[in-house]
Each structure stands twice: as structure tokens, then as C-alpha cells.
């Protein structure tokens, strides 16, 4: 016979896992990242310095890029700070796990939480949009190849907006899962298209210039960056999407396992969406 469900234990696990996730998100903003991903703040400042030192004609072409890089940095930093505030209030204002659940219900409708979720959504939209644009640039001659990724992107934008609207817990879990699946699918398709094009270009150059050393064209480095960026996003994204639709069960142990798995995949997935 299944034991009686204990909201205090479930709320306690939720509070601790959410706080751990917020801490990881803050740490991910520090200079502990791989060399080719870099540190967002450093890259933004370095890009701005190079931009200011460039001649005026070149600045016009780079203005949008600099603006978008800072927008992504600000929007990706806000959720980490706001979620830390969310976790602090949840832990500080509750004495039991059941009270933590009740406080979460109140905090979810307040502006800091709404701003945090909106920032995550916009960051994802902008980052995926830039990735899709890169694919379009190198596949202009065969633009129809990006129709399917574009449809997946538009679907992800629609589902991302839907996540922000009020809805029941079971519904929002399904909506967030579909949104994640669409985002991951688009990233897989676009990364594959870009990688294939780069390999194709390298082979073409090798045939045209058989005696030329092509090592100066660092295609392998670019492919490595693309693969290393897409692989964690795919793995953690799929794990997060699946965990959202998996039944958490009605026992304390099953709920505890689901909460831990869900928050781990969610934290890692959203950390890689801004890289």
C-alpha cells in the first residue's frame, strides 16, 4: 500500500533543488567555461572596444551585432539574479515544505518571476533566430533547405509565448515540453546544415587547390564549436522535455526523484541556451 503523500517533504525537496539550480545558473556566468564558448561579459566588452576602434563605415555594419550581444548578455543575466531572489524568498518565508508550495504559487504571479521567464524566452528567441539567420546566409542559393528549421523556429516562438500565459500545471508542463522539443529540433537541423555546408566548401577548395595547404582555413575548429555547442543543448534539452511529461507519481520517493531529475536537466538546458 502506497504511503500517504507528504507535502512537507515534497516542498522541502522542491525548495532545495530550485535553490541549487539558481546557484548553478549564477556560477555559469563566472569565468569557468570552456575556451571556445568564452565568457559572455568579456566577449561583450571586447566586442564593444573593437567596435569603437573601428572606422565609421565598418561600425554601421557591426552596430546591430554589438547591440544584440549586449541584449543577450543582459537577458541571460537577469533570470539568474531573479531566480536567486525567488529561491531566497521561498526559503525565507516558509517554515515547512507545504508552506513553500503555497509561497511558490504567490511568487509565480509576481513581476520578478514573470520578468525572469520572459527574459529566458526572449534570449532563446534571439539566439535561435541568429542561428537560423547564419544558416540562411550560407544556404542562400538553396534557401528552401531552411524552410523546415524556420517552421520549427516559428513553432518554438509560439509555444514560448504560450508558456508565459496563465494555465494549469499539467498543461504548462506539456507546453514547455513541446517548446523545448521544437527548440532542440531546430538547433539540430540548423547545426547539421551549417556543418554540412562547411564540409562541402572545404572539399570543394581541396579539389580546386590540391597543392594548397588548407590548414589556414580553420574549418575543423568551427565544426568543433558547432558540435560542442549543439550537443549539450540537445542532450539536456531532450532530457528536460521528457522529464516534463513523465508522471511524477503519487509517492514521496517518486516525486522526489522527478523533482531532482527535472531541475537538473532544466538548469543545464537553460544554461546552454545562452552559450
TrEMBL record:
Keyword annotations of the record: Membrane, Transmembrane, Transmembrane helix
Source organism (scientific name): Candolleomyces aberdarensis
Protein name, as recorded: Uncharacterized protein
Membrane-crossing segments per the record: 64-91, 143-165, 177-199, 220-246, 258-274
Keyword Membrane carried by entry: yes
Amino acid at each position: 500500500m502506497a504511503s500517504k503523500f507528504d507535502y512537507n517533504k515534497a516542498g522541502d525537496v522542491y525548495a532545495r533543488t530550485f535553490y541549487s539550480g539558481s546557484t548553478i545558473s549564477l556560477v555559469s556566468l563566472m569565468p569557468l567555461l570552456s575556451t571556445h564558448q568564452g565568457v559572455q561579459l568579456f566577449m561583450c566588452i571586447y566586442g564593444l572596444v573593437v567596435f569603437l576602434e573601428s572606422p565609421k563605415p565598418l561600425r554601421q555594419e557591426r552596430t546591430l551585432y554589438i547591440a544584440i550581444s549586449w541584449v543577450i548578455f543582459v537577458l541571460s543575466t537577469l533570470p539568474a539574479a531573479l531566480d536567486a531572489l525567488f529561491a531566497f524568498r521561498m526559503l525565507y518565508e516558509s517554515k515547512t515544505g507545504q508552506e513553500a508550495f503555497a509561497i511558490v504559487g504567490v511568487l509565480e504571479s509576481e513581476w520578478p518571476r514573470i520578468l525572469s521567464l520572459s527574459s529566458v524566452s526572449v534570449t532563446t528567441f534571439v539566439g535561435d533566430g541568429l542561428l537560423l539567420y547564419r544558416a540562411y546566409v550560407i544556404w542562400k542559393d538553396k534557401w528552401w533547405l531552411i524552410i523546415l528549421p524556420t517552421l520549427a523556429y516559428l513553432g518554438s516562438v509560439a509555444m514560448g509565448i504560450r508558456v508565459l500565459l496563465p494555465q494549469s500545471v499539467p498543461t504548462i508542463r506539456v507546453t514547455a515540453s513541446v517548446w523545448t522539443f521544437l527548440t532542440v529540433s531546430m538547433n539540430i537541423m540548423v547545426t547539421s546544415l551549417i556543418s554540412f555546408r562547411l564540409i562541402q566548401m572545404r572539399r570543394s577548395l581541396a579539389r580546386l587547390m590540391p597543392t594548397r595547404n588548407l590548414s589556414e582555413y580553420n574549418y575543423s575548429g568551427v565544426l568543433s564549436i558547432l558540435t560542442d555547442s549543439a550537443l549539450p543543448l540537445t542532450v539536456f534539452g531532450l532530457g528536460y522535455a521528457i522529464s516534463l511529461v513523465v508522471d511524477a507519481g503519487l509517492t514521496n520517493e517518486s516525486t522526489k526523484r522527478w523533482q531532482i531529475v527535472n531541475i537538473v536537466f532544466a538548469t543545464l538546458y537553460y544554461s546552454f541556451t545562452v552559450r
